[in-house]
Amino acid sequence: MDELDERLITLLRHNARRSISDLAADLGVSRATARARLARLEHSGEIVGYTVILRADTTNQPVRGIMMIEIEGQVTDRVIRTLGGLPAVSAIHTTNGRWDLIVELGTSTLADFDAVLRRIRLIAGIANSETSLLLATPRSTKAKL
Fold this sequence. Notes:
Blueprint: H1 3-14, H2 20-27, H3 31-44, H4 55-59, E1 63-71, H5 76-84, E2 89-94, E3 101-107, H6 110-121, E4 126-134
C-alpha cells in the first residue's frame, strides 16, 4: 500500500459513498486510476467492506468507555458470548498482556454506565477489570456527522 492508497482510504473513511469522480479529483488522479486503486484494495482484502454508521451510534451514547478484563480459567468464549448480548457493548477485542479482553461500552448516563459495569463484573469467569471513561475523541476513523 502506497501513499495514494492511504489517501484514498482516508477519503473513504470520511465518506465511503463518494463518487469515483470526486475521489479522483481530491486525489489528483484520473477516474480510471482511482477506480483501479479501489478495485485492487478490495480484491487484495485491504478493504473488506463498507458500513453504515447510524446517528444513534454516535449520539445516543454520550457516556463511553473501555473496560479491560482479565478472564479466570478457560471460559473466554462464554464470557465473550455473554458480553456480546449486552446492548451497551459496542465492540469486544481479545488482546495479549495483562488483560484478556478490551470491551468498548456506551450508555446514555453515568448511572447506566455504572449499572453495566456492575453487571459485567458479576459474569462468571471475570477475575479482574479496569475501566476508563472516554472523554473526547480528537481523531476517529469513523465518519463524521
